[in-house]
Amino acid sequence: MMDRRRFLALGGLSAAALAAQACDARGPAGALKVLRWAERRNESVERFLFRHTSMNHAAAEQLVGNRMPSYYISRGPPVWDEAVRGKWALEVSGAVRRPLRLTLEDLAKLPTVTQRIDHFCVEGWTASTQFTGVRVSTLARLAGLQPDAGYVDFQSFDSGYHESWDLESATHPQTLIAFMREGRFLSSWYGAPARVHSPVKLGYKNTKYLTRVVFMPQRNGGYWSDKGYEWYGGT
Amino acid sequence: MDASPAAPHRPEKRHHWIVRATHWVNAVALTLMVASGLRIFNAYPAFARKGESFCCWPWEGQPVPAWLTFGGWLSGARNWHFAMMWVLAVNGAIYLAFVWLHGEWRDLAPRRGDVRDAWEMIKFYLFVRKTHPHQGKHNALQKSVYFALPWLGVLAVLTGLAIWKPVQLAPLTGLFGGYVWARYWHFLVMLALVLLGAGHVFMVFAVDPQSLRSMVTGDYDESRSPEALNARPFLRGRPKPVLTIATPAHPSTPMASTPTRIHPPENPSVGSPAATSPSSSPEAVPAVGNEDGAGEDEVVIVANPHVGREDATRVVDQSDGEEVGR
Hints:
The structure holds two protein chains of two kinds. By secondary structure, chain A is α+β, with helices and mostly antiparallel strands.
């Protein structure tokens, strides 16, 4: 029994030592494969749970849009310089029959939606603001989706930032290409001239400073997804 | 468990192997869930929505110390959290299904008198009461904790789902008062689990280190239970058994036809000071240590044939004539 007790004590000590070493570490390297596998399994669960009819509305007493933080990966807020790049236009391309080029005026002429929804950040905070924009599903219909389009890549001029989505989430009725916020055109703090905004994905999936909406047969990763954040990132 | 008189004397398995396995899987999974969860919390160590204040957390904006966290960075912690959650939930479901189907829930379910018994335990730990209250497999304080933990686990899973899928599972999130509140409840449930878990680990080492062995091998020596040793944290009495064969303590429970597992007169070693049994069967307690304190507390271990495995020995404090327990 002494042996067993000593064995337990030693085992406990070495476990504690291992745990101490592992603390605030990323865990054993071999676990990464398992974690990746688990992420893909989670994605199937998340896609199973996903419903186009699940809607989000920010509660009326929680309207604090102007405190929504501003994020970009460039050094300063990215600004579309017309003198250098010409007039901004959103390109809708990829697995579509009729690729589109839509200026801000073209976008504004399309059927728009105004919604006040929760913005779920991967960090754990939420904020809400009122955005006006065109549904991605509207653009998909206009461009004529090809049957093999299962994913969408939202690309930007913010130092190559992009995030690709599954088609189901992208065509959710609350997924917008937003170009107005609280009744005004977007400022460069919030992704001008246009950005993706949706309650069904975490904040980092909502590409700002949008340039291209590319429908694809396969997924195309993303800025944060490639760094280790969940590719699906659903809410 | 077999109580046939023909069965050889060997220690009863205190915990079924499924209970032991799920206990240790849970210990690892819960630790990783808490540590990775704290790393996730540190990415935004507050509960308020942006631009609002939150009523019920005085430490808004204060991260927890990094050494308590696991995962390295937000993404790493999230990946661990969302992988380990399945281990925690499935393992918990196996445990709950087992205790339900196998009947172990009876050891944990609250009963009339538990509150009074818990109060007696507190009085004992505070030295207000001299002798350890009589208990079954667990004392009343333990029971309340082991009963609460699974429910807290269920709450942790539900609040976790509510903040994982606040849009797709919006009705569940709404049930907890919305995303901000669900996140708060998730944190508080974690705190409760950590506090009860820390108390549990402390008491294992301070009061009943033997239970650590019983959670590994399943063996438990009732003669060295906290009740038998009158154990308080870090204060364990020596077993000082003056073995006398007493009349059954409970004449009111007429179960005389029940086969008795403990039958001291047939055991030649009982009562002999020289007898040391290689097995740790509760009834073959060597009479050691009674030479120094023979007069100061007269403890009589009564082999009671009417009670089950965990009540194999009863302690009678003769000094004030009061039978310990009920």
